[in-house]
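Good morning C.,

I know you're traveling, so I'll keep this short. The sequence:
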Amino acid sequence: MLKHLFDIFMSLAFIVILLPVFIIISIWIMIDSRGGVFYLQSRVGKNNRDFRMYKFRSMRPESDTFGLLTIGDHDPRVTRAGKFLRKTKLDELPQMLNILKGNMSFVGPRPEVRKYVELYSAEQMKVLSVRPGLTDYASLEYIDEDSILGQSDDPDRVYITVIMPAKLELNLKYIRERSFTTDLTIMMKTFLKII
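The tokens, ready to paste straight into the viewer:
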């Protein structure tokens, strides 16, 4: 309950404080390439329920038809503005709206797309027992995931067989260790890592 109240209060505060940043980024996206400002993608949340996750659009329209994974620093689908937004994680800022709505938290397992959730084992499905988050242990460990996948001949296979299981282990570790102190520590480490 304390975590949920913290999420609501902090997400609302961040939305108000960062409103000028939201406006500047929105204008940059509109000038840089055609398409909307926001990108909405269906993700799997708590209790295995789908929800729409918000991001600033960092790719060209219809990019999903060419795959769900972003590959390397030179993925041609990523716009000029998108490269900067992804590198600085500013593309994730609209998820404050998801946190305010209650389908995400500041800290928790990153929400996955249904395609990959269908591959989870019974043990891995436990990550869906908590609200997904903006950041977690796996986000810190795999902050350069795009670059790792960019070095592979088969990024989808590497994601499914190597990265996804490792991230899920870290997600389960978070669930075992979760506390308000753990959340604050992860949030601080995420901020420092982005800086």
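Safe travels,
E.
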